[in-house]
Design brief:
The chain is mainly α and about 425 residues long. Among the domains are: about 1-90, no CATH class; about 255-325; about 330-415. It contains 20 helices and no strands. Helix 1 (about 1-25) runs antiparallel to helix 2, helix 11 crosses helix 12 and helix 13 (about 270-285) packs antiparallel against helix 14. It is extended, with a radius of gyration of 32 Å. Residues about 1-30 and about 55-70 have low confidence and may be disordered.
């Protein structure tokens, strides 16, 4: 009877393990064929080890029960590549693997960073904080080590997982849905393919740009970079139509991102943006592999950009030209951002700038008029400041004005002699 009981337990154990394999296969069934093929050898070996363990289990109910426990140590490894292979072998989703590895790598580098923020003096509660400050040599050593870590960490994550470190951090601290938002015009399948291609070719570029030479790319490196650009272009053309490919570039390229920042306050139409983008993109492509620290190159690119801008502005007429010129003022751009944030009228930014110009001109007239007694000048300046502040507050509203006034030193300067 006892032997029969043990045999039944063994059979149940085998059935449970087999069910577990079926469960893993169904639950993680969404993994790609490529990932499964890459892990198949290890998965087969893992199954064999479990089957052998069950077959050789002694006739003891307690020990048979233990073989059904899953231990994390079965997967953990001090070698990240082996650890990742083990996770893939049991069908762990790539997104989960990424979360596990990123967290572990970040913790490792956080520990490395932390050791350079201590001067080695033990904490004693009665000592003031200056006792634990770093010495100048320690600060220099810390900065050197942190610079090395800042270079090494992105390379490690790229090599292990094929991901962009900065973009990955943005998903946690800025916007986890940025890619889906920008590429909403693509199907889910197309989006997944182009994002995979982006990571693949970014990795190829980084291995050249951040390689051991740590300096200016050699001619052979530049040729490789050109080849990578061409290969990526061809790969995208296999996934996207010409129109989709153009929109992908307009949605994700560095040129387009820079223009979206530079044109704040201008509110370009689609046609205006495309016109300036095409001109700027041609320049960026022409100077992509030039030495940006070379004064001659800098001057040549600036001249080309000035000419392109001249042609672009020549296509604008009337108010659009005036609005574009005004939008190049950083103060106007800041006010445009503020207006957008607080849902102010479109004219608020222009009103503030006109107000500033008028107030500063009036202040200058007072200061240059030597026929007015100093005490009257001072009183008049204070009146100008008070009236300007009141008008600005009414134009922006209380909340927006409170924020704006923190950096608007010009208002306070109106009242000074």
């Amino acid at each position: 009877m006892k032997m029969r009981f043990v045999v039944i337990l063994l059979l149940l154990n085998v059935a449970a393990v087999a069910a577990g394999f079926v469960f893993f296969g169904d639950y993680w069934g969404r993994q790609t064929d490529h990932e499964r093929e890459a892990a198949q050898a290890e998965l087969t070996a893992w199954k064999a080890r479990v089957d052998a363990s069950v077959a050789s289990e002694p006739a003891n109910p307690t020990m048979v029960y233990e073989t059904n426990d899953f231990h994390w140590s079965q997967l953990e490894s001090t070698n990240y590549r082996e650890f990742i292979a083990n996770l893939r072998a049991v069908g762990c989703p790539e997104s989960t693997i990424k979360d596990i590895i990123v967290t572990d790598v970040m913790r490792l580098y956080a520990q490395r960073r932390g050791q350079y923020y201590h001067n080695g003096r033990p904490f004693q509660y009665w000592e003031t904080n200056d006792k634990r400050k770093l010495t100048e040599p320690q600060i220099e050593e810390r900065d050197q080590q942190l610079a090395q870590i800042d270079k090494e960490l992105p390379a490690v994550l790229r090599e292990l997982l094929g991901i962009n470190y900065e973009r990955e951090l943005n998903k946690y601290f800025v916007d986890s849905d940025e890619d889906n938002s920008r590429l909403a015009f693509l199907s889910d399948d197309q989006r997944a393919q182009v994002l995979s291609l982006r990571e693949e070719f970014e990795g190829k570029r980084e291995r050249i740009l951040y390689g051991p030479q740590n300096g200016k790319p050699a001619p052979s490196d530049i040729e490789q970079l050109r080849q990578i650009d061409q290969e990526q272009d061809e790969a995208l053309a296999q996934v996207l139509s010409p129109q989709e490919k153009d929109e992908y570039e307009l949605s994700t390229s560095a040129t387009a991102d820079r223009l979206r920042q530079q044109l704040i306050g201008f509110d370009p139409t689609q046609e205006e943006f495309l016109d300036l983008y095409q001109r700027q993109k041609a320049i960026d492509d022409a100077y992509e592999f030039e030495d940006t620290n070379d004064a001659t190159v800098i001057a040549a690119k600036a001249a080309d950009e000035a000419q392109a801008m001249k042609v672009f502005k020549g296509n604008l007429a009337g108010d659009r030209l005036a609005q574009f010129d005004r939008s190049q003022d950083p103060e106007y751009q800041n006010l445009s951002v503020l207006s957008q944030r607080y849902d102010l009228p479109a004219a608020a930014a222009s009103t503030l700038l006109d107000m500033r110009q008028a107030a500063e001109e009036e202040r200058q007239k007072l200061l240059s008029n030597k026929n007015i007694p100093p005490e009257r000048v001072e009183a008049a300046l204070q009146a100008i400041q008070a009236e300007t502040e009141k008008a600005a507050r009414e134009t922006l509203g209380e909340k927006a004005f409170t924020q704006y006034s923190q950096s608007a030193a010009w208002i306070k300067n109106l009242g000074t002699n």
